[in-house]
Amino acid sequence: MVVTEEIGVPSWDLYELSIPCTVFGKPQPDLADPWYDFRLCGTGSPQRQDDEARFGLSVRTQYGLDDLVGADTVIVPSVPDACVEEGAPMPPGLVGALRRAHAAGARMVSLCNGAFALAEAGLLDGRRATAHWQHTAQLAARFPRVEVDDSVLYVDDGDVLTSAGLTAGLDLCLHLVRRDLGAHVANQLARRMVVPAHRPGGQAQFIDLSVPVTDDAGLSPVLDWARRHLDRPLTVADLARRASMSPRTFYRRLQSATGTTPLQWLLNQRLARAQSLLESTELPVEKVGELSGLGTANNLRHHFLKQVGVSPSDYRRAFPRSGPAESVEKPAQAAL
């Protein structure tokens, strides 16, 4: 992972810096052995005593940019704000090192505004990419050859992956573990980190409601119940009745709390369930559609192509299963 140490690490960038350290840096031999060999590679410029250095964290590493060449994966978690806001040059040597690493076969990854470094190196030309929604307009304007998508959490373009900011970076790092080591390992690691096991990259960044306006605890029981019964037909009226609300009140409160409509929320949950089954079981696509509540195999394929961008079969091939299969025992039916 690249650390632009010459200006220190501002406190507001510590989160993105710490995500790869947490996901890849701590060995998990009971999940996969060997784990990742994780190294921080600094840009090596002298430390400046400016505001960012004084109020941030200075990082000294034993590895430099030359060590990026030969890595299997290179992560750029962020770049200095001046490179984004003022068009300042990237840290010396960084762009060339990224080009050399990619030419040598490295998988290139950016979190948040780290996409500006990949774009400067020409690695995003002709590719779909994303960044934090606050920076995507600048990214698109400065690099017109990049197909910037400001609506998604992350983009997996094979050997080049980009994510939005903050928690979306964690989603992408867990996605990499899922690709490399399988769904079981990624799910167990996410459980240890007390985070959701998988949010699909195509999920919206929720620009206006990235944090729910209200913490509507009254909705939690009915939403938890719905997740356990996705294999059965569910309507807004059913959920509203179970929540002891009118359909109109339920609609309004769910939209206020989640930023989406009840039907879209249900579709998202069904897709997440289908993805989990495809990743962790060998069930036929028809059965996956049934258990997730998406219906027929054709209906499952339709929603997958529209929301995820690939067919269920292609999605399953991208996530080779390791570890025990997920239990698909049908939950006990409860009366509405």
TrEMBL record:
Region named Disordered: 315-336
Instruction: Specify the domain of life of the species encoding this protein.
Output: Bacteria
Fetch the InterPro entries from UniProt: Class_I_gatase-like (IPR029062), DJ-1/PfpI (IPR002818), Homeodomain-like_sf (IPR009057), HTH_AraC (IPR018060), HTH_AraC-typ_CS (IPR018062), INH-QAR (IPR052158)
PROSITE patterns from the entry?
HTH_ARAC_FAMILY_1, HTH_ARAC_FAMILY_2
Q: Which UniProt keywords apply?
A: DNA-binding, Transcription, Transcription regulation
Q: Cross-referenced SUPFAM superfamilies, in alphabetical order?
A: Class I glutamine amidotransferase-like, Homeodomain-like
Instruction: State the Gene Ontology terms under molecular function.
Output: DNA-binding transcription factor activity; sequence-specific DNA binding
Describe the location of the HTH araC/xylS-type domain by residue ranges.
220-318
CDD domains, alphabetized: GATase1_AraC_1
A Pfam family (short name) is HTH_18
Q: Which PANTHER family match?
A: ARAC-FAMILY TRANSCRIPTIONAL REGULATOR, HTH-TYPE TRANSCRIPTIONAL REGULATOR RV1931C
Name the chain's protein: Putative HTH-type transcriptional regulator CdhR
Name the source organism: Streptomyces aurantiacus JA 4570
